[in-house]
Amino acid sequence: MISDHGGAPAAALIPVGELAELRRLQEEADIAEADHRKAEGGPVVTHDAFMADLEAGDARSAAS
Predict the structure, then answer these.
(1) 36 inside domain
(2) Total structural domains in the chain?
(3) CA atoms of 45 and 48, how far apart (whole Å)
């Protein structure tokens, strides 16, 4: 764990294999979310707008 000047966690060192697994899991979660929204019949949005919305949700989750 690497902390910032205030002592709060800022980064973590993990094995490359675990990083690949985390990325794969995030992609699966993103696809599942897209499928869920599509099934709900919600509004059509561009890929960029959809990804921005997902990233904003991830940021909100990380902040809480």
Answers:
(1) yes
(2) 1
(3) 8
Q: With respect to residue 35, please indicate whether it lies within any of the assigned structural domains.
A: yes
pLDDT of residue 61: 83
Cβ contact 2:10 at 8 Å? yes
Query: What is the residue whose two structure tokens read 């697994």?
Result: 21
In a domain, 49, yes or no: yes
- pLDDT, tens digit, for every residue of 3-17? 999 999 999 899 999
Write out the residue range of the structural domain in which residue 48 sits: 15-63
CA distance 20 to 39: 29
Q: Is residue 50 a contact partner of residue 38, using CB atoms and an 8 Å limit? A: no
Q: Rounded to two decimals, what is the model's pTM?
A: 0.53
Amino acid at 22: L
Residue type present at position 64: S
How many whole angstroms from its chain centre is CA 11? Answer: 16
